[in-house]
Amino acid sequence: MSFSPLIQQLIKALRCLPGVGPKSAQRMALHLLEHDRPAALVLAGALQEAVDRVGECESCRTLSEEPICGICASRSRDATLLCVLESPVDMLAIEQTGGFGGYYFVLKGHLSPIDGVGPEDLGIDRLMERLERGEVKEVILATNPTVEGEATAHYIAEQVRELDIRVSRIAHGVPVGGELEFIDGGTLAHALAGRRSLV
Amino acid sequence: MSFSPLIQQLIKALRCLPGVGPKSAQRMALHLLEHDRPAALVLAGALQEAVDRVGECESCRTLSEEPICGICASRSRDATLLCVLESPVDMLAIEQTGGFGGYYFVLKGHLSPIDGVGPEDLGIDRLMERLERGEVKEVILATNPTVEGEATAHYIAEQVRELDIRVSRIAHGVPVGGELEFIDGGTLAHALAGRRSLV
User: Fold this and answer.
1) Average pLDDT over residues B8-28
2) What burial class does residue A21 get, using C-beta atoms within 10 Å of its C-beta: 0-12 exposed, 13-18 middle, 19+ buried?
């Protein structure tokens, strides 16, 4: 015996959520059906509406239901700075620091020839068009410090080289509050190579 | 800055799932919107359909989209045994052991005067009607070994006392494969009090 077909269908559908295995999906399905049916309907509606209406910002490619997202629509930011990111979450993380006042460009991924992800899939052609317009003076490459993220950053740096634009990469090193003892070798090597003189 | 209103609405709606906090909800929402929109639509449909169509079995009160669930509809089980449970998941857990061939009755909760949950909310009146029909010879009380679960079991046992029906409680003790050293005192006390002679 197992659950009735509709409950099994719901359990299976919940598995699409990242981090949700068979046991969690079962617990979620039964919780919603037993204790919180209104919330289940709200969730169904929110999923439907978000899928139907959330597209991407025409300017920075982040997820947005408006043609131009709130940040790109803002006129009070520094148009000479452009931060290039892999994903909308990274954009949120940087915004939350409050330490960056420029604009963003979201690649939505990284170069990955094995998976067939090339420069055009990441909108690098659109990024270059934007840079050629001349307003941006510095491109900050904030892709992830993974092999693919580094390769993507290098590819973009190569492309930008021909233009009169500064290209920088975010610093990699020991996290603030971290203890050297517990930091991996790759990060430590980065931290040493990227040392800055104090006097 | 934060996400656009529709994405925020989706993140908030995902929080209704048990075990999902703000960070997980954010990760889920972005994962679905960035990488798996078809799955999001399937999930929305499954939620809607389950809420619309899954009700409870008229006989055992478990979640079911049919008026009578698969187990209650089966004619090949032992009608003299009735196992009383707190929730449909417990029913599934017992079914998966393959060691029980009787029928079930699901209370969908436990007695809890503080939360205003009384015998009628648990369908105990319907349970008694069923027992009075005389087919059942033994009621196995398999409510959880919590204070409320014990109280519920005792309440039902009191009610059944007047009928000519055996009432039993599932055994509590050391889990198979458990080590005494790591078992809590309450369980150990149960295990000692419920000891069975071997010869």
Assistant:
1) 93
2) exposed
Taking CA–CA distances from A9, the nearest residue in chain B reads: B46
CATH of residue A138:
3.40.1360.10
| Residue A3 touches partner B, C-beta closer than 8 Å | yes
In chain B, what residues touch A88 (CB-CB under 8 Å)? 3, 30, 34
A68 touches chain B (CB under 8 A): no
Q: Is B22 on the interface with A (CB under 8 A)?
A: no
Number of domain units in chain B: 1
Mean pLDDT over residues B41-53, rounded? 95
The encoded tokens of residue B2 equal 């934060």
Residue B33 lies in a domain: no
**B42 occurs within a structural domain:** no
pLDDT in tens, B107-148: 999 999 999 999 999 999 999 999 999 899 999 999 998 899
Strands B55-56 and A166-169: unpaired
Q: Does A100 touch chain B (CB under 8 A)?
A: no
Cross-strand partners of A167: A139
Q: What is the ipTM of this complex?
A: 0.81
H/E stretch holding A156 reads helix A147-160
Which residues of A fall within a CB distance of 8 Å from B66?
Answer: 4
Tell me which chain B residues have a C-beta less than 8 angstroms from the C-beta of A29.
50
| Cβ pair B40:A50 closer than 8 A | yes
Does the CB of B189 have a partner CB in chain A at under 8 Å? no
Q: Is A19 touching B (CB cutoff 8 A)?
A: yes
The answer to whether the CB atoms of A17 and B5 lie below 8 A apart is: no
Query: Domain range spanning residue B124?
Result: 77-199
Q: How many Cβ atoms sit within 10 Å of the Cβ of residue A119?
A: 16
Mean pLDDT taken over chain A: 90
Of B119, B106, B124, B126, the C-alpha closest to B60 is B106
Domain-embedded: residue B70: no
Interatomic CA distance for residues A53 and A66, integer angstroms:
9
Q: Which of A6-20, B88-102, B122-136 has the lowest mean pLDDT?
A: B88-102
Answer yes or no: is A117 within a domain: yes
Question: What is the pLDDT at residue B122?
Answer: 92
